[in-house]
Design goal:
The chain has about 350 residues and is mostly beta strands. The protein folds into 2 domains: about 90 residues, Macroglobulin (MG2) domain (Immunoglobulin-like), CATH 2.60.40; about 240 residues, no CATH class. It is about 5% helix and about 45% strand. The protein is built from 2 helices and 22 strands. Strands 1, 2, 3, 5, 8, 9 and 15 form a 7-stranded mixed beta sheet that branches. It has a 6-stranded antiparallel beta sheet with strand order 7-6-10-4-11-12, with no helix packed on it. Strand 21 and strand 22 form a beta hairpin.
């Protein structure tokens, strides 16, 4: 093992990073605004635009039916819903996240401040439905940033012309941008943002899907929802695609995406190597002592072990490049080791015997 480790360390090319910008919007998953004029020609109130449900270009008989999807939790956690959608960090980049913005409305709400008071955010490395690993955040802490949550200056309306005669405009669905803070350093790869909100009045609120004029949905859109069991608070029933059933009910179904914005900074990697690819964890499965070796010159500043639920069970600050972690006290099962460094982040799965 020592010889393999030496060979691994000797062949590494290390990453140098160049900062591109101060914290700012670095990614948007899609638009919501459809303009100041509705399909029927009605103008939006001053300072606002419409977010109007769509029909396919040239189709005058079928339209979207879903104005907004669930994604809130109540005080008793019954019938709550978790939303998720994916994003990609390009090859050669590292994203340093500090917050995520999502969009929500509460029908007939007329207040001047957002109608929500809590937000939960989590980042998964990979699809949470198919073995994705939680690497940042959790679904217990309230991380809402109310001072930076505000009126998005859009009003959600149904299609005003399709199917004929369309639906009359009702300006009762004001869309709000809600920000949640989260810290994560993400090398290139595919990630999923998972989130929930809580309405101030403990009632329902809704998340409008991505809306693009002339299309009901696009191939590759893949938002998902996870509904919690109504008879067992906290028990997940499983992920399912977010789909628009259409109006009328005979209309074909279309996949949907959730709009969200990621804020932070971007750095450029000058090598294709990453901590994820080059960290060494052994033995696996493990009974007592878990050894972790990272490339020479990489500075670790935190190490966490979490269980399948995302609960952190061990934490080390400013660990050494070669770690010997006592895991004898952990229960048998699957665990995730998350390492944060100046060379990015790595998450490794291991089994405790």
């Amino acid at each position: 093992m020592k010889r393999k480790t030496t060979q691994l360390l000797n062949c590494l090319l290390f990453i140098a990073f160049v900062s591109l910008a101060e914290a700012q919007q670095i990614y948007s998953n899609g638009p919501l605004s459809t303009g100041i004029s509705s399909n029927s020609g009605a103008l939006a109130p001053a300072g606002y635009t419409w977010s109007e449900l769509q029909s396919e270009t040239g189709n005058t008989t079928e339209a979207n039916s879903l104005a907004g999807a669930g994604g809130i939790y109540t005080a008793d956690e019954v019938n709550s819903v978790i939303n998720t959608d994916d994003f990609v960090v390009p090859v050669g980049q590292v994203w340093n996240l500090n917050s995520v913005d999502v969009f929500v409305y509460q029908t007939t709400y007329t207040g001047t401040v957002p109608p929500v008071d809590q937000m939960r955010v989590q980042i998964f490395n990979g699809d949470p439905q198919f073995g994705g690993v939680p690497i940042a955040g959790n679904l217990t802490a309230n991380v809402i940033d109310l001072p930076n949550s505000n009126d998005a200056q859009m009003l959600r309306i149904f299609n005003t012309t399709t199917p004929a005669p369309g639906i009359a405009i009702g300006s009762v669905r004001k869309i709000w941008k809600i920000r949640g803070t989260i810290s994560a350093t993400l090398p290139s790869g595919t990630y999923w943002v998972v989130y929930q909100l809580h309405s101030t009045n403990d009632d329902r609120s809704f998340f409008p899907p991505v809306t693009i004029p002339g299309t009901r949905g696009l191939a590759g859109w893949n938002a998902k929802q996870n509904v919690l069991a109504s008879n067992a608070p906290g028990q997940q029933l499983g992920w399912a695609p977010l789909v628009d059933d259409g109006t009328p009910t005979t209309a074909p179904d279309f996949p949907l995406d959730f709009p969200f914005v990621i804020n932070g900074t971007v750095t450029l990697g000058l090598s294709e190597n990453s901590l994820q690819a080059n960290v060494l964890v052994y033995p696996n499965p493990v009974k007592n002592q878990l050894f972790v070796v990272v490339p020479n010159g990489v500075n670790l500043y935190s190490c966490e072990i979490s269980d399948n639920s995302g609960r952190v069970v061990k934490s080390l600050q400013s660990p050494n490049p070669v770690l010997e972690i006592d895991v004898a006290d952990l229960s048998t099962g699957n665990y995730f080791l998350k390492l944060q460094s100046d060379n990015g982040m790595a998450v490794k799965k291991f089994i405790k015997e």
